[in-house]
Amino acid sequence: MSATSASAVAVLRAAPDPRLAAALRALAGTVGALALAALLFGAFLVAAGHDPLAVYALLWKGAFGSAFAWQNTLLRAAPLMLTALCVVLPARAGLIVIGGEGAVLMGGLAAAALGVHLGGLGGMALLPMALAGALAGGVWIGLVGLLRERRGVNEAIGSLLLAYIAAALFKHLVEGPLRDPASLNKPSTPALPDAARLGELAGSGVHAGLVIGVLACVLAHLLIHHTPWGFGLKVAGGNPRAGRMVGLPVGRLAIAACGLGGAAAGLAGMIEVAAVHGAANSALAAGYGYAGILVAFVARQQPLAILPTALLVGGVAASGGLLQRRLGLPDATVNVLQGFLFLSILVAEPLFQAVAQRIRRRRPR
Amino acid sequence: MAALELEVVDLGKRFGDFVALQGVSTKVAAGSFHALLGENGAGKSTLVKCIVGYQMPDEGAILVDRREREIRHPADADALGLGMVYQHFTLAPGLSVLENLVLARPRLPAVLDWAAERARLEAFLDTAPLHVPLDAPVATLAAGQKQKAEILKQLYLDRRFLILDEPTSVLTPQEADEVLGLLHGLTRAGRLSVLMISHKFREVEAFCDEVTVLRRGRYVGRGGVAELGRERMAALMMGSEALPEPPARAARVPGVTRLRVADLAVHDDKGVAAVAGMGFDVRAGEIVGLAGVSGNGQRELVEALLGQRAVAAGVLEVDGAAYRGSRAEIDRAGLASLPEEPLKNACVPQMSVADNLALRSFDRPPQTRLGWLRRGTIRARGRELIAAFQVRTPGPDAPIAALSGGNVQRAVLARELAQPRALLIVANPVFGLDFASAAAIHQRLMAARNAGAAVLLVSEDLDEILALADRVLVISGGRIVHETTPAAADRHTLGRHMAAH
Amino acid sequence: MSADVDLWAVPLAVFAGAIRAGSPFLFVSLGECLTERGGRINLGLEGALVMGAMSAYGGAVLSGSPWLGLLAAIVAGGLLGLLHGLICSLPRVNDIAVGIGLMLLGIGLAFFLGKPFIQPRAPGLPAFELGAWSSNPLVREALRINVLFPLGLAACALMHLALTRTRWGLALRCVGDSQDTARALGLPILRLRLSATALGGALAGIGGASLSLFYPGSWNEGLSSGQGLMAVALVVFARWQPWRCLYAALLFGGAGALGPALQAAGVTGAYHLFNAAPYVLTLALMAFASERTGAPGELRLSR
Q1: For labelling, which of A51, B224, B233, B338 has a CA lying 20 to 30 Å from the CA of B264?
Q2: Cα–Cα dist A339/A336, whole Å
Q3: What backbone phi and psi angles, to 5 degrees, belong to A286?
Q4: Are residues B20 and B60 in the same domain?
Q5: Residue A199: count of CB within 10 angstroms of its CB
Q6: Are residues B76 and B223 in the same domain?
């Protein structure tokens, strides 16, 4: 063994920065889980009579294989970053919120309803629209937190029910009071004026929502890990009793975390409306709220880890069309992969630990 | 159905490098009531766990009725007629006593005939001296009745040797006497032998025939309770270590009222009034001891005082102003607290030791400057406190849940008492600690009082209250039922008030 | 027809809907009830329900027999339930998160495998024509009782008896109430929980079959409207009693029939809002009527 590698081992042994070590451990766990998911999904494909290697090759191609694929992936990753925050922020308060889709719809609808009237504001129209979207989404998920803290309604179920209610409200308004009479076979709100449209990033084909998504994740990271508010939130989420003992407003912190998460998801709705659809219609209910749950869990509820994870999940979604065209696979193929991915993330760590423990137990002392 | 004799010979058990038991031998004669004494960590629990099959001894033998037996599993102990009653209750709270007893019975048929089961149980009850309502859910029973149901279960299962692990810690003195009296009667009738872990000399003297004493995993002595006497038993438990000085109480006149509670009502988890019409004051420079049997509203009261539980009605004031337990109010009041079960009540288990040490201070300079949390400062401060209070931890970044109970307690002590505080709310602060650590905490409480702090000490240990308090209040059924001073107090009167509701 | 007659039809349609749309609620809430009696929550019953609906339809198409389709639904749902139990037996795994994962997987698998069955017609389950005496088509339609509904009544009775009168039921309740007690008694905790979650999944599968083989009686990707998730709220409302699950299911079935019934009667303005009635009802029940009495002690429904 050379001197340098020996010293490298010594450095590793001499307890490196514990935060770095923890991050590395988490990364190893995630990679293991991804491998497990790939294995399970591969076995499923074989059982269904498909060649897993061809599918994986095509997945790669559809997600990252060309400039067009990258563009497609990034367009999907942008809203996923924001909807993942709608899971991550409440998770810091110990809540599992899975109804971000409702906030996307409410945010998009609010932005569309307001934006129609802002043609005269020029480029400034986007700011009130963003605020309206964030506010609508924030109130919607804030309500989930409120129901949880004040009435004991389980937040996972409460947020899902509210997502269903949001979908009904959305349809009612888009097909009724807010409908553009000119939208015949696809009920929509009136088309947004140009001033209220979110533009592209310098000829990339990717809209500016991507920057907003990245920025939101970085801000969330700073908020969670580098402010006393984030510390208090972690305490309140980790053990509410201890939080109350040291005087933290535990309930209010949880509601605020829900509200902030909802605001992020509402912003995602606004971005989709302003950059992609140009109006609020059923295309907004594309499932970004639900896919955000997967992103958050794979990212282990860490805002910065959302960035690569959103690319991964967005890429998988982006390649769905290619799988359908080239291999004749149903579009639900992507959902199956996502299901395996979610379960693998939950199972991998305890499973690996249980196996390691068994091996350790077998080794003679 | 005759009582069993049990003997252990040269029993040893290690956990890694830690020697929990070494060369322990003793004998419980058939039909006797035997006490097992020792400090925390003396190996009592390990010994009884080996006997009932929760752990396997590394060396030595267990003899039941003079035959060596291998007890690898609780089922083996069951088959031999050895049973155990725990400190905490083990009956399923949502099921009725009848359902609990039936479920425990061996050879239960797949389809239940409740009429037959009830008849069978009632026939058994006619021969047992204990009576418990059969159809009420266990959760609705009083503590004494639950403990009786636990013992009833053991008898229903034909146990002829019973181990009791501090069985009276949740009972009033009167309830304890009743339950232990019943067991004593069963030993005299030759139906049962009993081995009881206890730290209450009063109960040992009243009910036990013989005693075995352990210290640091080793056998140190054995003898008749009457021959040994209280002094000798205590000396055996403690060994040659010098007893710490009892805390010195400075003579002082109590000052202004710091904490005032009047007509306070607090509900428990089910929304039932746990505290009602409660009123008392705590003044600067005094320790007020709140004595009572567990489950009479102490937990809910302390939680309300700490802001962990909503106040349903009444007045809760600190320094004459309404108090809700916000960070600003806590700061102004100079409040600190040692709640019971510190990991559950006062720590965030998955956060690091350093973070847990910062729970009171994280949002103030120097830990936070200009809205920015300084993690390096939090860690450095954590290191200092870990060293100053001798918290044994792999490091400031280890999750606090990885620490032993005593070290978690020390960490909370470090956080709460590192700087002088003016108002202390303390609940069973030395529960589970050895003599030396307990004495150190008592010293600190007394020192705080001597320096002018107002201290509320809620404890189920009457000795602790009588040693420390300036005034003694008795809580029962969620209200204060008696007030006295340690000098004027006598145990019998206090016990009667504790049981009154 | 005059407006009066149309409005008179609304309560009739709601009654019919209570039974017709209540059947999936009944089975899936019984499944959730059984799962929760063992101390676990399974949000994945939504996945089991959708998977059951697909399996039932596909099985019926392939075999030509709706009964074989039902069997396929039971097996598929049971397997997903079993998987939930197995994963939750690993240390430090959150049962709610696992449920979400299984919901995703179950729905994904059902859509993937069910793609070829969207077009063909499957033979439906038979029904009892209790309204044959009436000449009114509305009455006849309302009294056409799904064969699964009496099966659901039988399942209620059986579950009630199993929980109260068998060793298995008593032991399961003990596991759900206090794991420590169960361990001290040496009960086979894992096996009991697995049996409860697998049976619970199978019941949810039957609920799915009632969607695809009776009402609405087709297979497509929008078939379920979250009945498997709402089951959790129904069980709270039912206080973990099988018979009360029946009342809850009828109530929710009726609420779900309100929108279509009003639309049929010509009240169309707020169709989508009326469709949200079951969700609003669930939320209201959980917020205002959610006494936790009777909740199994090991259940993590609220901290």
Answers
A1: B338
A2: 5
A3: -95, 5
A4: yes
A5: 12
A6: yes
For residue A239, give the chain B residue with the closest CA.
Answer: B348
Longest pairwise C-alpha distance within chain C = 69
The angle, 0 to 180 degrees and rounded to 10, between the axes of the packed helices C242-264 and C227-237 is 130
Count of other CB atoms within 10 angstroms of residue B56: 12
Q: Is C277 on the interface with A (CB under 8 A)?
A: no
Cβ-defined contact of A343 to C96 (cutoff 8 Å): no
Q: How confident is the model at residue B40 (pLDDT cuts 50, 70, 90)?
A: low
Q: Does A165 touch chain C (CB under 8 A)?
A: yes
CA distance B348 to B345: 9
Cα–Cα distance, B316 to B264 (Å, whole number): 7
Which chain C positions have a beta carbon within 8 Å of B100's beta carbon?
174, 181
More confident residue, C130 or A235: A235
Locate B136 and state its tokens.
Answer: 């009420």
- Test A151 with C109 for CB contact under 8 angstroms: no
The answer to whether residue A252 neighbours chain B at the CB level (below 8 Å) is no
Pick from C91, C112, C275: which is nearest to A336 by CB?
C112
What is the largest distance, in Å, between two alpha-carbon atoms of chain A? Answer: 79
> Do the beta carbons of residue A271 and residue A212 sit within 8 Å?
yes
Partner-chain contact C112 A154, CB within 8 Å: no
B196 assigned to some structural domain: yes
Chain A positions in Cβ-Cβ contact with residue B367 (cut-off 8 Å): 228
Q: Is C295 inside any structural domain? A: no
Chains that touch A (3 or more CB pairs under 8 A): B, C
Measured CA to CA in angstroms, residue C103 lies from B48, B137, B177, B501 at distances of 47, 36, 56, 52
Q: Closest Cα of chain B to A28: distance in Å?
A: 20
Mean pLDDT, chain B, as a whole number?
A: 88
Using an 8 Å Cβ cutoff, are B367 and B385 in contact? Answer: no
Quick check: pTM over 0.95?
A: no
Give the pLDDT score at A253: 97
Assembly ipTM: 0.90
- Cβ contact (<8 Å) for B362 and A249? no
- Nearest chain A residue (CA) to C274: A168
Residue that finishes a domain, picked among B211, B238, B265: B238
| Cα angle, residue A75 at apex, residues A71 and A78 outer, rounded to 5° | 135
State whether residue A346 sits within 8 Å of chain C by CB: yes
Question: What is the domain extent for residue B290?
Answer: 257-334+421-499
Q: Which residues in chain C are contacts of A337 at CB distance < 8 A?
A: 108
Query: Could you tell me which chain C residue has the CA closest to the CA of A91?
Result: C97
Number of domains present in the structure of chain C: 1
| Token pair belonging to A164 | 């269903």
Mean pLDDT calculated for residue range B487-501:
79
The chain-wide mean pLDDT, for chain A, equals 90
Residues contacting A24, CB < 8 A, separation 6+: none
In a domain, B392, yes or no: no
Q: How does pLDDT run across C269-287, given as a tens digit for each residue?
A: 788 888 888 889 888 888 8
Bridge partner residues of B472 (DSSP): B289, B484
Cβ neighbours for A26, distance < 8 A, ≥ 6 positions apart:
A300, A302
